[in-house]
Amino acid sequence: xxxxxxxxxxxxxxxxxxxxxxxxxxxxxxxxxxxxxxxxxxxxxxxxxxxxxxxxxxxxxxxxxxxxxxxxxxxxxxxxxxxxxxxxxxxxxxxxxxxxxxxxxxxxxxxxxxxxxxxxxxxxxxxxxxxxxxxxxxxxxxxxxxxxxxxxxxxxxxxxxxxxxxxxxxxxxxxxxxxxxxxxxxxxxxxxxxxxxxxxxxxxxxxxxxxxxxxxxxxxxxxxxxxxxxxxxxxxxxxxxxxxxxxxxxxxxxxxxxxxx
Length: 261
Ligand code: R5P
Known about the structure:
By secondary structure, the chain is an alpha/beta fold. It has helices spanning about 5-10, 30, 40-45, 60-65, 95-100, 120-135, 155-165, 180-185, 200-215, 225, 230-245, 250-260, and strands at about 20-25, 55, 75, 80, 90-95, 105-110, 140-145, 170-175, 190-195, 220.
């Protein structure tokens, strides 16, 4: 692996413990003004000090994030659908690699939709993006298993993650499931876990803890942080679970203490 690619990956996944807390705020690319992100800058800025990297779209980066922030960026570069459509899988590449480089990103992110009507198209898009990324030393993060109705079980998620890795993705993002260690074991690149829909803070901390315990390289979490009653306290709690090996109960106690205090 060349220096640039490796250096960018180390900026995303901390080489000290091989873990990351990626803050995901890219939801608007198909969900519009998602709850908590109506005014992105107000929500995102206070969280930046606690995230290892930030996953977002070009439009939000350009308009809402000051260039003075030095946080490593993971740029969402796929899209083309919206929540008004039943089928979210009809995505294409929506940002050129040259523009991603101009925006000084550490990685680009694209979704693949395994088992969908547009499975082939999204895998080929991933492959094309990886070829471009390899040319310039930009890692590609493959997002798997986004969609409404699907069995997010170990068999399906292992299939998705392995296909992403075989295609050449440097990092794979997926969902946590029972027997998650099998997903990680059969995926030769780091796996990060999405938070999914908002659940209680305690449940989200349990999810982060279990994911890391069973081999995840961290989380790429959005709604369970920015929709929390106290997003700053929540990202700190998530960080302590991922990086400091703190139990979810201890982290939750800290969260409550911060919230009350
Ligand atoms: C979904 O396609 C987006 O990439 C989100 O970034 C991802 O789902 C993670 O966010 P959340 O933790 O809210 O599920």
